[in-house]
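Worked example 2:
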Amino acid sequence: MAVSSASPSAGPPENDPQAPHAPHAPQAPGFTVAALSGQDTRIVRAAIHPAIGVARVGDSADEFFLGPETEDEPPLPTGSYKDATGALKRQAARFRVYGYNAAGQPVAELTAADADISWTVHVANKKGAWYQFQLALDIDEAAQAHESQLRNPLVGGADRAQLIIDPGPRSVHGRDRAGGPELRCDTGTFLRIPVYLGELRTDGAGRLIFLGGRGVAESVDHKAAETFANNDGWYDDISDGPVTAEVRVDGRALPVDPAWVVVGPPNYAPELKSVRTLYDLVRDAFTATGALPEPAQVSFTRDILPILRRLCDLQWVNQGLATLFGHGGREHFLDPDLLSALADPGPRHEELRRQISKTMRDHDRDGSSPVPWPPVYGDAMSLPPISARQHLAISPLQARLLARWTLGAFVPDLVLGADTAPLELDRLPLADRPDALDRAALSFCLADAFHPGCELTWPMRRTTLYSAPFRIRHRTESEPEHAYGKVLTPQSALEYDGPLYAQGPGDLTRWMAVPWQTDTASCRSGYESRYDPYLPTFWPARVPNHVLTEEDYLVAVDSTRPREERLAAFARRSPWNRWLPTPYKANINAMVKDFGRLGVVERRRGVTDDPLLPAEMLVESEVSFPVGPAPPRGRNLLSLHVPLAADERLRDAVLATAIALAEEPDEELSAGYIEKVARFPGKR
């Protein structure tokens, strides 16, 4: 693989820091590429894509795979996500440079074959020096939550700089570059402990490949993690920061729009998307400001079907969603007959469209009811519920597109049986590739339950964070961020030129949980078991709740077995985290060391001899725990929040009583005081 080195370049000029602007005008002489059917092919500037690239940690020593570059590219072969030792591979983010003409149209990808490209990446981890996560600070409920105080408050003054893991910038240039200490981001420290945050490489065309950390998280004083988000003395190797490039063609420098890289937790269900993705969220924010247009026409396949398909696809990661939206379920929108009706704009199916559209959550209408769709927790989730934002709603843009669909005002572009094979990036028209890269990177990130979230959190919906749609506003070294005091209030978080404006290395991920594993282990489903033991759910598209195991899959596809046995095996889902201990604190600490052993949900061949079984199935593969008795596969690990267990003097007694009185006494309970769902003081 090959990489190129670069020094930082400033972002586009900004006149109004509160309003994103169009890409900057040409600033340098251009050059011409081969003619493209009458298009102006004189390149006057360049831009890095994806604008926000996403890498992910993994505990494999050396192996990695490239993150998705189109929204619907072919899945990797089964077995691609773990190495021969059973360790989880890292996901790498690959960046490309595209040349643009004076009209802002992409006309060529610039590679090492026709340009001299130098890349620079500067990532950091600022979690330990930032503020606690209590609640998203841009919602009204934040005023009722605990204060967002500094993490590690006993480290004061100049010593707080020791809480920031910052290896400084790293640069690379050329093709197929890999290895070498100059490419590793490993000189940053947390309280003098060295922490590796990743490394730079290039591929054979000189494109940048960035690898993040290996999922290392530790406590400097060897104390166990106590909570989901704010464990003092702990660090992890998540990071983020600017990606810049210097590009020369025939000795002439081109102005280059910079990008950003984010290193997130692993993706345990790499084919699945959430109902509302991070791309949907950011697109909606820019549509609201007028920086992006709303679609002139609603396409069924582009605008409506993805929402319905995502609900159905979540059948592979949550038992409740499987029963409701899965194959054979009462709301299985992908059934060919139902799908044909949904794609028909005629009046015969208007009431069907209306019922589906109106079942989507409306906070003003529904309050904190868990019944509307999507059955996913929201930004203000807490027990007991106090807010309509207890649960998630689709984006306003998605809701408007569904409303137009309800009225039949959409293009019926679904062709059942047509070839809809996923496309790799190089099979798309060149003009579509930059946007495809931007979209793909964020489409596999969550905008569910910014509580705080999986890869990124609530600041991503604030347009002041960007210099242009999807492009993070860079902060230069001459513009240091000012201090916000011992407590970050909603007012100071949202103030002009505050933390939601220009960004520096580590500024996006500092809002996230530390370490990430404790939050990932805490984000389950069915906390409101009086409503349903499996729903609502937090982040199933990235962190599965219940999966089709290899054992049950093999029964389901075995045509020699009795039909009812096969159907029962297919309908059964097992807790994904059943390999971890059930007491809550033991569970979140086990996740720190065992995150790479958990299974990955991957595509397998299904059944063609029975309509009640699908032709393809997503199956939990490659569980890497030591050989031994497997946990019971049919049990449900109920997440039982016991508020009185916050008092250590009462903990043992109240937990024993709560378990004895549980509505499902035969189930195994993960019981304890779960701070994740106790967000408001005095509400118990």
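The chain has a mean pLDDT of 91. The longest strand covers residues 90-100.
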